[in-house]
Write a structure and sequence with these properties.
heterodimer, A: 328 residues, mainly alpha, 73% helix, 0% strand, elongated, B: 372 residues, MetI-like fold, 2 domains, 17 helices, globular
Chain lengths: 328, 372
């Protein structure tokens, strides 16, 4: 007969620990949800927040609409964004009509279809780049702040270098050397911004978290370095990281548009390529006569970029209470 | 600083090293060449040596200013092509940055001072739109409105061949002289300001403006009687639109940031103290609030400078302004690798210099750092 261990893990306690962990997770989720709701309230209170959310939702719906329209109403031979051709018009580009609400481009393709098709890739690009940025920057910021000294110095010098690099020029050079597609572009932009400015900002935030009492408590309770970084520091960085995700989306969409405008990217269709097509065809100096070639794409880039930018600014007011407008 | 420059050189070298093919493929791809000649060419480029040796040679060459020979502008060396293009970019970039910083700072502090009006709303929205506007489309719109519809300015390029047909001086000569006189004017204006600061009590500061304007008038008059004034005017005309566009797209960032920074400074005690002393509103704003709100703006000037450098690449390509950015783009399109590396090196150096200037400026503006 074995003596029962006084502090050993008996099955009952294990179950108890499991349910405690579950309860802990639930409590934390509820906390997140509550702060999300109050934050969301503040976000929606500001006009910038509402406006940006509205624009983003409209574009998201547009991105969703394209495959549905292609499958139901639009005939692929006419409406495919890249290979379609409108056989009804005698001359291309044709002005807007019932059949082509935004007209056709110089190669006889439907502009609306191109616009909707590109929206999806812009979202994919922006969100991928933002996720890469945030993953890298949160990790780098937390690690640099936590370990300090050499690690800190290394990452901060690296960040200085990344800031000093002109991204568009570098991307132009890269596009000359390698065929750039959407994924690589997102990756490069994410890495540039993740190791660059975003890391510095998240590090300074992490520094202020590092000296809080609960970090001490976690260390006293025997938490390892990685436990403290991942469980205690990084969750506190996430609101700020979310804010910088927005700004990264803006810069990613912008960089994509510029590069495809210069004709340097390996993409099927994008807003930049639409303007590129109109520009190389010489339709841009026709001014308002061929407005449907440039206005939809150009306005989309501006609108979506500024929507994400404004969303970032509105989030800034949520995260940074000091910026809130006082009523006095 | 030197380390960063070194890293940029290293980065470009290994990027080129990592891509398929090499320098010599431009010559070697010629099918008429027998294999021995191809090997000779590769040996002449040092491509038969191990990578680390190539890298050291590349470093040595870059430091000594030997950037190779451009394929596209054969047989001009890269350094020669860049020496012609760099001042043009610098002028575009510096003018636009200075003007946009001034306007942005001025507007930013104005809208922060009067919170919540229609004016603030309108400027913030238009600032955000300008900040995120699709630069090429915006530049094309500027061309269309001001060059095509109104016809005030030429559509693009650096000069008008029709004006220059009978000229017996080169464009670089005229442009160099223009740079010299602009530099002389800036030094003169700074001197006047410095002297006024020294003897500020004796002389009212109203005198400054006529003196500076007088200096400008002398320079303009000198150009008018020099005989090449018309040519210079032609270059200036071509410059206006790109500079204006670059200014418009880059001032918004400064403006929005100044606004935020002002909003934080206004809550400080010393601003309230200044108000309580009964100082005029304008003086509280400019001397007490804005002076301190400037510091974070200057810190982030690095970002906006990089933004402006990237912006100038785009603007140059849209306006066909033959600066470094356009050179880079053309070199990339024609796979002119030595020129690509030279141009990106220069752009890197430019952004580094901007970095250093901002650091120095910050120390000048914030006495707290100096006294530490």
């Amino acid at each position: 007969m074995t003596t029962p261990e006084p502090f050993g893990p008996t099955p009952e306690i294990a179950v108890d620990a499991g349910s405690r962990r579950l309860r802990f997770v639930l409590a934390r989720l509820r906390l997140v949800w509550r702060s999300f709701r109050s934050g969301g309230g503040t976000f929606l209170e500001s006009q910038m927040g509402r406006l940006s959310l509205f624009i983003i939702i409209v574009y998201a719906l547009m991105a969703v609409a394209h495959p549905i329209l292609m499958a139901s109403v639009w005939d692929p031979a006419t409406y495919d964004p890249v290979t379609g051709y409108s056989f009804d018009q005698v001359e291309q580009p044709a002005p807007p009509s019932w059949k082509h609400p935004l007209g056709t481009d110089p190669l006889g393709r439907d502009v609306l279809s191109q616009l909707l098709y590109s929206t999806r890739s812009e979202f994919v690009l922006g969100i991928t780049a933002a996720l890469v940025t945030v993953t890298i920057a949160t990790f780098v910021g937390a690690v640099a702040a936590y370990y300090g000294r050499v690690v800190d110095a290394f990452f901060m010098r690296l960040a200085d270098l990344m800031i000093a690099l002109p991204a568009i020029s570098l991307l132009i050079v890269l596009s000359a050397l390698f065929p750039l597609n959407l994924f690589y572009l997102a990756l490069i932009i994410g890495v540039l911004s993740g190791f660059g400015g975003t890391a510095i900002i998240l590090k300074s935030q992490a520094l202020s978290i590092k000296v809080k009492p609960f970090i001490e408590a976690a260390r006293v309770a025997g938490g390892g370095h990685f436990h403290i970084i991942f469980v205690h520091i990084i969750p506190h960085l996430l609101p700020l990281a979310l804010l910088y995700m927005m700004f990264t989306v803006t810069s990613a969409i912008f960089a994509e548009a510029v590069l495809s405008f210069l004709g340097l990217l390996d993409l099927r269709m994008s807003w930049g390529i639409m303007i590129h097509t109109a520009n190389t065809g010489g339709y841009l100096l026709g001014g308002t006569r061929y407005w449907w070639l440039i206005v939809p794409a150009g306005a989309s880039i501006t609108l979506l970029c500024s929507a994400f930018y404004l969303a970032g600014r509105a989030l800034d007011e949520v995260v940074n209470p000091r910026l809130r407008q006082r009523n006095d | 600083m030197v380390l960063t420059l070194f890293l940029i050189i290293t980065l470009t070298f290994f990027l080129v090293e990592a891509q398929p093919g090499d320098y010599a493929s431009f010559y070697v791809l010629n099918p008429d060449l027998p294999p021995e000649v191809k090997d000779q060419i590769r040996a002449a480029f040092g491509l038969d040596r191990p990578v680390w040796q190539q890298y050291l040679i590349h470093l040595k060459n870059t430091v000594t200013g030997n950037l190779g020979v451009s394929f596209g502008n054969y047989p001009r060396p890269v350094i020669d092509v860049l020496a012609e293009r760099v001042p043009r970019t610098l002028v575009l970039f510096l003018t636009a940055t200075a003007v946009s910083f001034y306007i942005g700072f001025f507007l930013g502090k104005a809208i922060a001072w009067r919170r919540g009006g229609l004016f603030e709303y309108a400027t913030t929205i238009s600032g955000a739109v300008l900040f995120t506007a699709f630069t090429p489309a915006f530049a094309l719109m500027m061309i269309w409105v001001f060059a095509f519809k109104l016809g005030w300015f030429p559509v693009g390029k650096f000069l008008d061949p029709l004006v220059w047909r009978g000229a017996d001086v080169s464009a670089n000569y005229v442009f160099g002289n223009m740079l010299l006189s602009a530099g002389a004017f800036i030094v003169f204006a700074l001197l006047v300001m410095l002297l006024l600061k020294r003897f500020g009590r004796a002389v009212p500061s109203v005198v400054a403006l006529p003196i500076v304007l007088g200096g400008a008038a002398v320079i303009v008059a000198a150009w008018a009687i020099s005989g090449i004034g018309g040519l210079a005017l032609d270059i200036v005309k071509h410059m206006v639109l790109p500079v204006a566009t670059l200014t418009l797209i880059s001032f918004a960032g400064t403006m929005l940031l100044t606004r935020n920074s002002m909003l934080e400074t206004i809550r400080e005690d010393y601003v309230m103290a200044a108000r309580a002393k009964g100082l005029p509103d304008k003086q509280v704003r400019d001397r007490h609030a804005a002076r301190n709100a400037m510091l974070p703006v200057v810190t982030s000037l690095v970002y906006s400078l990089i933004f402006a450098i990237d912006g100038s690449v785009i603007i140059e390509s849209v306006f066909s302004w033959p600066g470094t950015g356009l050179t880079l783009l053309q070199a990339v399109r024609s796979e002119d690798l030595p020129l690509v590396m030279g141009a990106i090196l220069f752009i890197g150096v430019l952004s580094l210099l901007a970095h250093v200037v901002v650091d120095v400026l910050y120390v000048y503006l914030d006495p707290r750092i100096r006294y530490q």
